[in-house]
Amino acid sequence: MSPDEIPPPPRKRVIMIGVGGATCSGKTTLAKYLKGILPRSLLVHQDDFAPPRNQILIHPIYKMQDWDAPAGAIDWPRLRQGLQYIKDHGRMPEGHKSHDHLNVQELVGVDAGVVERWRERFAGTDVGAWHGEGQAQGGEIQWVLVDGFLMYWDQAVIDLLDVRLFLRVPRSELARRRHARHGYHTAEQFDYAEGTLWRDPPYYFEQIVWPAYCEAHAALFVDGDVEGRLKEGEGVKVEGLVELDGGSNPGDMLEKACPKIWEVLTRQREIVLD
Questions:
Q1: Which residues cross the membrane (predicted)?
Q2: How far apart are CA 196 and CA 101, in angstroms?
């Protein structure tokens, strides 16, 4: 066979999983556990698409930088473009960097048996395997996890997600967790130089974080009550939203999230076989 006759490799079928929730709801921890379960998966942090620190807007009332306002906390054009690239190509955009490794995270123990059981179930789950040997025209599955505190605000981002997980934690517990945090490294910094760490000013959660969360998520809830019931039925902003208890052990969340992910994988199988 000549080089011109060699067929191109099969296109990867990207399954993109959104892991959303308020700051300190446990979404990044859950996303990292899922990354350990789903083979060859990529993890994208929405925070890595925040504007540079000198472009963060000043809150009009409290006169401090507002890192949480939905319209300004994320560079939305860059995030949409980045996720679309990943969706189309099955890989990170050239030159993409993450600062997540700079942020200290509290790890919560999960029963190793839960992780191993789901890891074994998802192992080898590429589309080609469903065709039989020599029939891999469907391409392999590329899992992509996207975590962020504004995951369900922008409709273009929502529409790219095949699975939509949403962690919920009561306001009082979110406040406790946020106040206990050491700080956050800003998106444009990739070293430990002086000035790279953002620390919350007094009352930042109460005056900035929580009101911004309410603004960004009111449309998901009945009567806009973010501590009430999620909307259901036709015409909801986020279809198929899977509600998870962010106050529970991540193992319990995995037991609810993984079957939903498996359902989407099964639908992909049906599409290929059709």
A1: none
A2: 13
Can you tell me whether residue 32 is helix, strand or coil? helix
Architecture of domain 3-273: 3-Layer(aba) Sandwich (3.40)
Q: Which residues of 247-264 are buried (b: 16+ CB within 10 A; e: fewer)?
A: beebbebbeebbebbeee
Contact, 110 vs 249, CB < 8 A? yes
Both tokens assigned to 96: 């993409």
Average pLDDT rounded to a whole number, residues 158-176: 97
**Within 10 Å of residue 79's Cβ, how many Cβ atoms?**
22
Question: Residue range 132-140: average pLDDT?
Answer: 48
CB-based contact 38:163 (threshold 8 Å): no
The pLDDT tens digits of the residues spanning 223-261 come to 999 999 999 988 899 999 999 999 999 999 999 999 999
Dig out the tokens for 128 from the structure.
């080609």
User: Would you say 257 and 244 are in contact if contact means Cβ atoms under 8 Å apart?
Assistant: yes
Task: Give the amino acid at 204.
Answer: Y
Cβ atoms of 151 and 20 within 8 Å: the answer is yes
Among 138-142, 152-156, 203-207, top mean pLDDT goes to 152-156
Q: Which residues are catalytically annotated?
A: 47
pTM: 0.85
The confidence score (pLDDT) of residue 125 equals 64
**Tens digit of pLDDT for each residue in 43-93?**
999 999 999 888 888 898 988 888 899 999 999 999 999 999 999 999 888
Give 131-134 contacts, CB < 8 A, sequence gap 24+.
Answer: 131/272
The label of the residue with tokens 């890891």 reads 119
